[in-house]
Amino acid sequence: MKITEQSKDHLVVRHVPWFIGGIMAVLGAASLYASIFKPDSFTSTAEAILVPTLGVAMLGGAWWFAPIVTLVFERTGARVTFRESRLLRPSEKIFDLRRVERVQLQANWSDGSRLTRLALRTEDGVTPLETGYTSADRKEIMKAINAWLAGETPDMENRPQEPTVRR
Q1: Residue 131: C-alpha distances to residues 73, 74, 84, 106 (Å)
Q2: What is the predicted pLDDT for the residue at 154?
Q3: How far apart, in Å, are the Cα atoms of 57 and each of 38, 40, 53, 141, 159?
Q4: 8-state DSSP, 77
Q5: How many CA atoms, within 13 angstroms, populate the side-chain half-sphere of residue 45?
Q6: Burial 75-87 (b: 16+ CB within 10 A, else e)
């Protein structure tokens, strides 16, 4: 997640999972392509059943686990818009900004590693802002959002960014 727009009255945070979504979509599409256009390349019936099943599962996983998430905080409209964009099914939830208490981390342990995700705490409860947990550090984004909620407007030059992957 990264902050894409920030002012005194407006904050936009966006997460585009290109890496995991792209890998799953490419592998799923390749499996389905092989199943449809190269069916004679399979050496057994099990392969002919397994490959298209894995292709559909990978595409379904990309659809479910890799939505584009956009959070729009607006002081003037006193609302927070939480938008998840998936192919053929975008969804949107609107929260009253006056009922938002803070953004917090939710944690989960997996194989000895602490995984986290962001969640929106309102007077009505907690809403996860990400579909899954990640090992990426979300503390800086959480602090920046909470600072904005408290009325602070940090310098855009020093805002937290997602770490870049060098290849």
Answers
A1: 20, 23, 10, 12
A2: 57
A3: 19, 22, 6, 32, 37
A4: T
A5: 0
A6: eeeebbebbbeee
- Tokens 């290109």 -> residue: 18
Closest of 70, 72, 73, 71 to residue 149, by C-alpha: 73
Q: What is the DSSP letter of 134?
A: B
Helix ranges, the chain (H): 18-37, 45-65, 139-149
Distance CA 115, CA 15 (A): 17
| Rg over CA atoms, the chain | 20
Task: Determine the average pLDDT of the residues in 77-90.
Answer: 86
Contact 119, 136 (CB under 8 A): no
Give the separation between CA 12 and CA 80, rounded to whole angstroms.
Answer: 10
Distance (Å, whole) CA 33 – CA 58: 13
Task: Tell me the per-residue pLDDT of 23-75, one tens digit each, with 9 for 90 and over.
Answer: 888 888 888 888 888 878 777 788 888 888 888 888 887 777 778 889 999 99
Residue 33 DSSP symbol: H
* Residue 43 φ/ψ, nearest 5 degrees: -90, -15
The pTM (predicted TM-score) of the whole model is 0.70
> Residue 4 and residue 136: Cα distance in Å, rounded?
18
- Whether the CB-CB separation of 7 and 153 falls below 8 Å is answered with yes
What is the amino acid identity at position 12? V
